[in-house]
Amino acid sequence: MNILLVDDAKTSRTWIAKALIRAGHNVIECNNGEAALEHFMADYFPLVLSDVIMPGMTGLELLKKISASPKKKETDVVLFTAHNQSELAIEALRAGAYDYLLKPINIQELLMIIQRLAKKRGGKEYQPLSVSFINEAGFATEEARQELERCREALAKSAGLYQAGFFSPIMQNIALLAQKYHKDRSVPVLIEGETGTGKELIARMIHNGSTLSEKPFVAINCTAISPQLFESELFGYESGAYTGSLRKGQIGKLDLAHGGTLFLDEIGDMPQDLQVKLLRVIQEKEFYRVGGLQRIKTDIRIICATNADLVRRLKSGAFRPDLYYRLRVGYILLPPLRDRVEDIVPLANLFLKQFSQEKGKRFQSVGAAAAQLLTGYEWPGNVRELRNAMEWVVFMYDDNEVKPGHLGVLGLHSQCNRENALAQVINPWNFVIPQEGFSLDDYVDHIVEQALEMHQGNRAAAARMLGMTRRALCCRLEKIK
After folding, report:
1. Is-contact 101 80, C-beta < 8 A?
2. 8 Å CB contact between 280 and 298
3. Does the pLDDT at position 356 exceed 90?
4. Please, are residues 332 and 202 in contact by the beta-carbon 8 Å criterion?
5. Other CB atoms closer than 10 Å to residue 121's CB: what's the count?
6. Who has the most CB within 10 Å: 148, 217, 244, 335?
């Protein structure tokens, strides 16, 4: 296929051209949109690949000029950019782009697009590149290396949380088990645990292992996709597969996860008809796209997670036993935070330091009295709730250590001691002052905190409730801090 490649970055352009030539295509390179337009008008190109951000004529401007040309019917345009902006992608597709890719470009994904174009135009399918070549060329450009470094930093940060978060013996054993599962990609893994226990974090640890993986990690929440769209989302679909489908077809999450990991969250909610097809993918390592007749081989690790009781769903017929037992070859049960109390304070300190650094606050640790409140709370939201609690404390206050008063706005004190205390409504015209005296400032501060709690932190609403201006309330909060 004749391909016109447009990119002002020479290293990036040379790398992509080399990959396409190696795959059997003829490539003409241009370093700007003006030169590319001249080549386009003078020759026949079934495909134009163009960067979006370039000096002079941008990729979008080039696309619009090609779309306005009589030769547009013979050409498809694919744009690529290092800027992940949904508005830019929407504008490109509206202007007539066939597809839109992000740098660093995944060569296998690009060649799959070219394969679909070749089939649409009656041409031959591409010859897949060797794994050794992809590994050699995949991150050869400076832009690609920078993007990889950003990804590694993000993953390293997450990996640090994994290790630092395993304080109790049971969580340390889970960490070791995750490392074992990482070594064998053919073993499917089922992770069970309540909401907020960190199922996806464990899944990513299985994916990454002790080093940071460059392979894709594709996550799907089975409850977030309607049953009608689930199959096409997972397997992709061919052109004209159903009414309203894209003319060019669409690759699915199985394609995107090729060579890496597919993470299916809330697997218990997967439609029953798709459970059979997922089982086939696990066993046969192949699948069909919606509306397709060609078997597609796949190489993925499958990790599933659920907070539902799958055994009960087995008995009710809502979940297939054969899929359940196939997924359960590798199994991890994450205990709720209330069952590993020794993790609560270390995790709180971990999150506290993290948010303090991000927000420029002074917090260093959780005080002894506050720690007693934290460990006495049941944490129905588990680690996620604890993390959110520490983020809220850092947002609201600035101190060296967390004190019980800092937790009042979260309602922890009343919840931890609800069996021993009843909420009392203040009657402003009928109450008794203790003879031993008390701090008026502390009393007013507590009232302000309770008002904020009642209105979920909405300062304007709390101020109206207390009969004061929002400015006065903010000044009071500054004194509390």
Report:
1. yes
2. no
3. yes
4. yes
5. 12
6. 217
pLDDT above 70 as % of the chain: 80
For the ranges 240-244, 418-422, 462-466, the maximum mean pLDDT occurs at 462-466
Helices (H), 121-257: 131-137, 142-164, 169-182, 199-208, 227-235, 253-256
The C-alpha atoms of residue 247 and residue 98 are separated, in whole angstroms, by 9
- Mean model confidence pLDDT for the chain: 80
Query: How many residues can be counted in the chain?
Result: 481
Query: 265-279 burial by CB neighbour count: b if 16+ within 10 A, else e?
Result: bbbbbbeeebbebbb
Closest CA to 314 of 363, 247, 268, 357: 268
Average pLDDT over residues 25-34: 91
Residue 236 has pLDDT above 80, yes or no: yes
Please tell me the distance from the alpha carbon of residue 269 to that of residue 306, in angstroms, as a whole number: 9
Are 40 and 96 a contacting pair, CB within 8 Å? Answer: no
Domains and CATH numbers, the chain: 2-140 (3.40.50.2300), 165-335 (3.40.50.300), 339-480 (1.10.8.60)
Residue with the two structure tokens 């059979």: 276
Cis ω on the peptide bond leading into residue 104 (within 30° of 0)? yes
> Higher confidence at residue 35 or residue 435?
35
CA 337, chain centre distance (Å): 23
Buried b or exposed e, range 204-241, using 16+ CB within 10 angstroms: bbbbbeeebbeebbbbbebeebeeeebbbbbbbbbeeb
Q: What is the pLDDT of residues 315-347, one digit of tens each?
A: 999 999 999 999 999 999 999 999 999 999 999
Whether the CB-CB separation of 71 and 47 falls below 8 Å is answered with no
**Do the Cβ atoms of 36 and 4 come closer than 8 Å?**
yes
Other Cβ atoms less than 10 A from the Cβ of 376: the count is 14
